[in-house]
Fold this protein.
Amino acid sequence: MSELFDAVDALVASRSPLPPPAERKRLRQAHGLTLDEVAAALKVRRATVSGWESGKTEPRPPERDAYARMLKQLADLYPAPAPTGVSEQHEVPRPTAAAEGPAAQARAVADPAARVPGAGDVASPEDVAGEAGRGGEGRGRGTAHTAPASAPAVPVAAGPVPGARPVPGARPGRAPEPVTTSRRSGARQAGTGRAPVPGTGEEFEHGPLAVIDVSDGQVSGYCTGGLVLDVPAKSLPALVGWALHEARLGQPRLSGPGKDADPLLVLTEAALERYGLPRTLTDEERLAGRIPESHKVVRQLARADWKLTKRGFGPWARIYRPAQGSKRACVQLCVPSWHALDARHWGSAAELPPAELARVLGVYASRVMTPRGSTAVTGLELMTALHPPTRASAPDADGTRRSEHNPGSLGKDPVDPAPCEAPDGHPLLKDLPRFHLRGPEEKLFEEACDWARPLTDAECMRRHLVGIDVNMAFAAGANGLVVGTGAPTHVKAPAFEAKLPGSWLVDLSHVDLSRVRIAKDTWADLDGGLLPSPFTPTGERPEGPAWYATPTVAYAVELGYDVRPVEAWVRYDNGRYLDNWYARLRDAYLATMADLGVHADMAPADFLTAMDGYKERDPELAVVVSAVKATVKGGLGKLRERPRGEGWRPGEPWRALSRPTWRPDIRAAVISRTRVNLHRKIVKHAAFTGQYPVAVLSDCVVYAADGASPLDFLPYRDGRPLPGGFKLGANPGLVKHEGTQTVLWGEEVRERFDAPELNLARYIKDGTVTDVDTGE
């Protein structure tokens, strides 16, 4: 009889109503149970229990019976409070699609917009059809949350959570991040029955991006923090809609007047195949940078009223709809197998499993910004995100707010460079003779130093060549630098002003490095023949008047010499435009290095030890470090982007010129200051120790030394470095050990290639030299 009674009890329980979703959640929380604990007990996924509590799904046998039994026991322990009516603080939940019945569920699946208030108000960047660096870098204005430029980064690895399953593809030896699977539509906040409120962070609760992958027929979105979302989309247009209206992906703006970052979807090869896209590009498509417009998926997007930028559907594709008011709808796609993640900057990231790739890109997004393209494009976009060109004005008499220039930004309109700042082929130079070669008296040529010299007899007697490298040198050069934010003004015979950014035509050939001022009233006698000139990229002494950026001319004055410019192009509208950009990237670099065990406050010897093999401690975070450094250099390079194909001819404009961030003068100023900063340290070191560099390449300097470590020639006293000289450490502007080779190696390399001034700094890291490197 007991078996019959049990069967009857089970039958009754299977038809008995369960408490409403909100009550289920209340009972679980009242007993202090987590979703993971309940899921583990019932042998279901965490997201399944979450769906039961939000009302999106209902439990089915056999789990339903056990779930009902648990809820009944909890209800006996924690009776529901007596109803007191509805107050302003307690909103009555709207019925979910599941509660409204099959018809409502069918409507919700067929029309995602029906599940999101305002979902039909789709939009695009103001100028998304232009250059990748223009427009489209966020969401429309409103009450969205504002994040500071140096917002704290999210943890790179969460600790284990009871009941959580390990991240698929995670490497052994590292604590697994908790993984949540969910079919949450994102249309309503789970358990509240309402749409997320903009500005609270709820709309981006799943992070900035998702790596879309397919396994065993199931499409999944791997997000940051180990979250895995079930993706219901059957086509690419549906996937775009899911990302915008259901997935709750994105990132808060970095500046008050700015825009929130659009969702980023990273498509694996399996996802490409699922959505009808090629796994790899043909040679023709790779050269074009896109798949043809006749491709069936491109036509699918067009039929669904989605548009692509002028760059088309390539490795970094932007899909959007035209703006409707301040609302926007724009999704960024990244296709690693189409070489979206350049191996020079992202290492082997494109080959990582989905969860690990989401971790790498997620850490980068949280500390820098959501990738918008290559690291170079992202570096440039970061400048705009931190200094948006416009802002909302104060309300006028009728309460209307208008768009106005945002002080400190570069504005929304491009400005022409000075003729001396324009690269060859610029429209400003179209009247020059076709084969005219501009010299330094016509062209500003601020580039990194590439200089080397033969070893002296004394240096040949030493055992080692030791290279040191400046951390984030160009970022440090941007820190505190005053640059022009407006158009240049031409001035004849000006008095030089060290605080006025611009380009100056001046003769610096009289500056003698044999005697220089190294402090206010302190002069040093040096062997100028063993030092590179700070006034030319080759390190050779200038022969007459040339164009220089302000930091270069200011350094000549600092060394104790008079300067008399012939003319100048100066910018009276100026400011420290790059400060926030530097701070954001510095913090990203230092935070990631700290995660790898290299901290900013280490003693010199400890720092060198920590740097030894730091990349092997967590190769994924090492990729982030590489990407951050590439973001600095690439972003600065984009300030003077040259034409690439496009059928361009000299004298014609190219696409990048339409960007307000096409500013070769800013790039020149940063490079000038970086080169000067390094030369200043070289001079201080020579004056104090009598040691001179053998080679200089950009941010790397090589010295001959008796020992193999930088500590064998860098002057430290009681752990303190030479003031104004080289200092070991992780911070931008400080130096690290680049590499050590023997003096014999250096002499053999130069003899083999019959090049007594071969720049050994280029090969000091691993000692490998090829015929291709030397041009032989």
Notes: The radius of gyration is 31 Å.
